[in-house]
Design goal:
One of its GO terms (molecular function) is ATP binding. It is found in: Cytoplasm. One of its GO terms (cellular component) is cytoplasm. The chain is an alpha/beta fold. It has 6 domains: 46 residues, no CATH class; 203 residues, Rossmann fold, CATH 3.40.50; 57 residues; 130 residues, no CATH class; 150 residues, Alpha-Beta Horseshoe (Leucine-rich repeat, LRR (right-handed beta-alpha superhelix)); 179 residues, Sandwich (Jelly Rolls), CATH 2.60.120. The chain is 37% helix and 14% strand. The protein is elongated and about 140 Å long.
């Protein structure tokens, strides 16, 4: 068989050594053919090399410009001199004889040039060699550039095969230059990401990476908060959110500023839960660059996965040495000064990092040649002390994102998983039988917890694999083994079925259409070894396991490779020199399931509770009820504020159910039956729900009750909701938690949440805060909220997706606005609309808001402060902020008119004048609500509390809260104020007058002008002349403010506010200076 026949019959196989072309003298071909620069299809000639032969693997494409063009079709009437009948009869051997002669002429010609480059000082050169040396400087070469490149590749290959790697590198660097050499090699290496394997590398189906769905969404701002929730809770939250308004950003654009922005983005952190596609995104970024599609301004891409950096924890090296370790192509091409190139450093898997990353205490390092620990090099890289012009991309799970200080991160992006349409699309593609696919989709949708989990692509694969298998078994054996065909409704049932059908999983990860191996392939011993590994490293927070750690558990590398359905080796195609192989479970949830299974098996088979300290090594023979183990697991899970053991707990409780144990014994034959005392355990969990104030922890406890098939609390609150009587019902702590769980697990999107449907109290607000956190619009108006709620709401605003909040008609006051502004000022607050009408806000609160909006000006679009009293100063502050932010609208409508009547009327108090304190010339009527200054004294009995020299009276009520009252008078001389009970009543002179001592505060009206008095000091009030003689008084005792307002039918004007610290109850007091003048206590009017 000749070469051409081998090529036709075995196009994908390596060509044997016997196919190598013999070397001929170039003298046999005096006139070498002239090749054009590019091949007919526009690409350079590619030479593939094999270990058997350099020349036999060269694939040289035909070029239309070759003068020796052969047309073997014999159909063209206009044939040239080579298209003779004789040439048409030439066989393959003759054709390739010509190719051999011409190809060898090119090769020998180029090799003589390379010889001159590598050995310029050779003493003896042949005439032809000297001639070729001269031709090196000639600009008019007749050789095709791609052919020359092919000759160079062959030469480099042979030199390396001969062990002359340094000579090969020297030649390549001379021809291309160090950067070009490095880029060529790097691009070739990164093209391995063109395909990914769905399943095992040996058996899975290759898929083009560019067809794998991976989408990044920009997250404005930099998160400085830590998400104290298990990732499953984060998935649940994401599943309830409506379509995001954030603009999507492609992988290649993560370092580009958004439209309208002009800033250098150096460090990007990309967050995403386990299995969501962070590493795939990194691979796509690499591939796009390698294939020249995008980001060609980047000169070097250096990938430094944290799982490999972990293995260098104890090493000391320079940054150049570290980068050479991960980019050997740079070392080979002679690049040592990375400062002069545009470099992107990619750190994948921050959550896998076992380095301390001590940004605070690590020493300073500013030189590429300074030797330091890897940890010091990394922290100085991220601080910009090393390679300040380099771009840095870090991927991580959300919980670890906080390991990099906020001020070092310029952009945060998030990778989202499948949305609802994509879930269905996946099942339809995965399951070829569309009727079966519809059944799978229907079942997953019917179980909310499973449907939410399908947000993760790997869980969608698990669900499709298990449910398809069950349906196929049911169709084949509809009457046999009926229990085994039951469709899983909980996570534990799903994962137990997953383990039972491990034969499907052994050879695939997301694959479909694989052949069906033995269903009992995982032996019990290996399952328990993996379970022990899973549990002990789960407690340490490890997801990555190195070969040395596997050896500690007596797990061989070969074993790990066999069980890749649940436990897999991380890609061998990572970067660097691979100090040690790394492994992980296919997904974190599988590790958590294996950990729970191991704990349960150890307890029921050996009576050992591995969750408790072991006091003795003695193993009890008699079986022990599993309930104490489960109770201790509940207690331990609640001790972890970050929800670290939440899913582990759900699996453990689920495994205590008889149905799951029956399934599990198919792979763990030694497992004994040991069911929990369900009612006792249920009551223990319900008690924890009553005791635990954390909504996040309580929600997981409801999931635990679901695993135990107890839905009593949920059904109780659902019945209350259906009756429509919830807002009038007093709920217990457990019922509040159940309500939050029902709302958070509803199929409906939490676009708008109206608290008034469920509660109008601060207790309801705090109990449903977790629901508010997951909504886009929070309607909290008229819910009797005060400043006590503002601190909690501020925390929500700084760490959630809430875009709009309506707090109208709540008594927040300036003190509440101060707390709320702390959240608004956070760079992680994305609130766009805030409504605060009728919230009792003055110029002080306006100052807090203005400061917050200046600190975080990017997001707020609308601020409504209508029906408050900002005053002139407050209006100026907010107008200045609005002027600086073109996208911000501040509403300050109808403040004077309605502030008092609508915002403060809720504090209206009933007052009665105390006749025992009244001056003798005052007469009272209308149930002691009205007093008149008389010429003659009234027949009042003597009383030590009575004012004797001035026409004053105090009210009977002592006030020490927020209170509001209005008075209206006739005459031109009136005093309105408050006083301590100890104010003098009998002193001569002015000592008893309201405002003329340190025991009272007063507003005085005299002939149309107002003055404010305290301790004989007066403060003139510059306000227009008023025909109306009506004043409203607002006392905020705890805040130390006493405010006076001029009130008329259509206007309200702030007159004066006293700021002090009150020490005892205050009694409203009034004084009339003119005979026949009157003063009446009025009821506040509704606007």
């Amino acid at each position: 068989m000749d070469v051409s026949e081998q090529t036709e019959k075995c196009p994908d196989k390596e060509r044997p050594a016997s196919s190598c072309l013999s070397l001929r003298s170039d003298a046999s071909m005096p006139n070498p053919p002239e090749f054009s620069k590019d091949t007919a299809d526009g690409r350079s000639v590619q030479f593939e090399t094999s270990n058997t032969s350099a020349l036999s693997c060269a694939s040289i494409k035909r070029d239309s410009s070759m003068p020796t063009h052969l047309d073997l079709t014999n159909k063209d009437p206009d044939r040239d001199q080579y298209d003779s009948p004789e040439s048409a009869k030439m066989d393959g051997n003759a054709i390739f004889k010509l190719v051999e002669i011409q190809g060898m002429d090119i090769l020998m010609h180029e090799m003589r040039k390379y010889k001159g480059i590598l050995f310029p000082n050779l003493s003896q050169c042949s005439g032809s060699d000297k001639q070729d040396e001269v031709s090196l400087t000639s600009e008019n070469t007749q050789q095709d550039g791609s052919a020359c490149e092919g000759a160079l590749k062959i030469t480099l290959h042979v030199l390396k095969e001969m062990g002359q790697k340094e000579l090969a590198n020297k030649l390549e660097k001379h021809i291309y230059g160090e950067l070009d050499v490095c880029q060529r090699k790097l691009r070739d290496k990164l093209r391995k990401f063109e395909y990914i394997y769905e399943g095992l590398t040996q058996h899975g189906n290759q898929t083009l990476l560019n067809k794998v769905y991976t989408e990044l969404y920009i997250t404005e701002g930099v998160s400085g908060t830590v998400n104290n929730e298990h990732e499953i809770r984060q998935i649940e939250a994401a599943a309830r959110r409506p379509a995001t308004e954030d603009k999507p950003i492609k992988c290649e654009d993560i370092f580009n500023p958004l439209c309208g922005q002009d800033r250098f983005i150096r460090t990007v952190v990309t967050k995403g839960i386990s299995g969501i596609g962070k590493t795939i995104s990194v691979q796509k970024f690499n591939l796009d660059w390698a294939e020249g599609r995008v980001n060609q301004v980047i000169q070097l891409l250096i990938n430094l996965p944290f799982r490999e950096l972990n293995l260098m924890k104890e090493r000391r090296c320079t940054l150049t040495q570290l980068l050479h370790h991960f980019l050997t192509e740079a070392k080979e091409s002679g690049i040592s000064n990375f400062d002069k190139y545009k470099v992107v450093l990619i750190f994948d898997g921050l959550d896998e990092c076992r380095l301390p990353l001590d940004f605070d205490r690590n020493e300073l390092c500013c030189s590429l040649s300074d030797e330091a620990s890897v940890d010091v090099l990394l922290t100085n890289l991220m601080k910009g002390n090393l390679l300040p012009s380099a771009r840095i991309w870090v991927t991580t799970r959300p919980a670890a994102a906080g390991r990099i200080p906020v001020d070092l991160v310029d952009r945060v992006t998030e990778i989202r998983g499948f949305n609802d349409p994509q879930k269905e699309e996946y099942f339809k593609k995965k399951i070829s039988d569309q009727n079966m696919a519809k059944k799978v989709i229907s079942h997953v949708k019917s179980t909310r917890s499973l449907y939410i989990m399908c947000h993760i692509p790997v869980f969608s694969w698990i669900s499709a694999t298990v449910l398809q298998k069950i349906l196929q078994e049911t169709e084949r054996r509809p009457e046999e083994d009926e229990g085994r065909g039951e469709m899983p409704n909980t996570l534990t049932q799903m994962y137990t079925s997953f383990l039972r059908y491990n034969s499907l999983i052994k050879s695939q990860k997301y694959s479909a259409g694989q052949e069906e191996p033995d269903t009992r392939s995982l032996d019990e011993e290996m399952i328990l070894k993996l379970g022990k590994l899973a549990f002990e490293h789960l407690m340490k927070g490890n997801m990555i396991f190195y070969e040395s750690e596997l050896n500690e558990y007596d797990i061989s590398v070969n074993d790990a490779a066999i069980y890749s359905g649940v436990f897999t080796q991380i890609s061998k195609d990572d970067f660097g020199l691979h100090l040690e192989r790394a492994y992980c479970f296919v997904h974190l949830s599988i590790q958590e399931y294996f950990a729970a299974m191991y704990i349960f098996h150890t307890f029921v088979c050996f009576n050992q509770n591995l969750l408790e300290p072991q006091e003795t090594s003695t193993v009890q023979e008699a079986p022990v009820a599993v309930t104490p183990l489960l109770k201790s697991a509940v207690d331990q899970a609640l001790q972890h504020d970050n929800g670290h053991l939440d899913l582990f707990l759900r699996f453990l409780l689920g495994l205590s159910q008889t149905s799951n144990q029956t399934l599990l014994r198919s792979v763990l034959p030694t497992l004994r039956s040991n069911s929990s005392r369900n009612q006792e355990l249920v009551e223990h969990i319900k008690e924890k729900i009553r005791q635990n104030p954390s909504p996040e922890r309580c929600i997981n406890l409801f999931h635990c009750l679901s695993e135990l098939n107890d839905h009593s609390l949920v059904e109780e609150i659902q019945n209350t909701l259906s009756s429509g009587s919830l807002s009038e019902t007093t709920l217990s702590s457990s019922q509040w938690s159940a309500l939050a769980y029902v709302l958070l697990t509803s199929m409906e999107e939490l676009d708008e949440f109206d608290l008034r449907k469920y509660s109008r109290s601060e207790e309801g607000f705090l109990k449903l805060l977790s629901v508010i956190k997951e909504s886009r619009v929070a309607l909290l108006k008229e819910c009797n909220l005060t400043e006590k709620c503002c601190d909690a709401l501020a925390a929500v605003l700084s760490s959630s997706c809430v875009k709009e909040v309506d707090l109208s008609n709540n008594d927040l006051q300036d003190s509440g606005v101060k707390l709320l502004s702390a959240g608004l000022a956070s760079p992680t607050c994305h609130l766009e609309k805030l409504r605060l009408p009728f919230c009792g806000i003055t110029e002080i609160g306006c100052g807090f808001l203005a400061e917050a909006l200046r600190a975080n000006p990017s997001h707020m679009k609308e601020l409504d402060l209508s029906y408050n009293h900002p005053g002139q100063v407050g209006m100026e502050l907010l107008s200045s902020v609005q002027k600086d932010n073109e996208h911000l609208t501040v509403r300050l409508n109808n403040n004077e008119e309605c502030y008092l009547k609508s915002s403060l009327k809720k504090y209206a108090c009933k007052l009665t004048m105390d006749l025992n304190t009244a001056h003798s010339h005052l007469r009272f009527s209308e149930d002691n609500k009205k007093m008149t200054h008389m010429e003659a004294a009234q027949p009042y009995p003597d009383n030590p509390d009575r004012f004797t020299d001035w026409g004053q009276v105090l009210c009977a009520e002592g006030l020490c809260d927020r209170c509001y009252w209005e008075v209206e008078w006739t005459g031109e001389r009136t005093g309105i104020g408050v006083a301590y009970k100890g104010i003098s009543r009998k002193a001569t002179g002015n000592e008893c007058v309201l405002g003329y001592n340190d025991q009272s505060w007063s507003l005085r009206y005299c002939n149309g002008k107002y003055t404010a008095w305290y301790n004989r000091n007066d403060a003139p009030i510059s306000v227009p002349y008023f025909n109306s003689k009506r004043v409203g008084v607002f006392l905020d005792w705890s805040a130390g403010t006493l405010s006076f307002y001029a009130v008329s039918a259509h206007t309200m004007t702030h007159l004066h506010t006293f700021h002090t610290e009150f020490s005892e109850p205050l009694y409203p007091g009034f004084r009339l200076g003119n005979v026949h003048s009157t003063l009446t206590l009025c009821q506040a009017e509704t606007p």
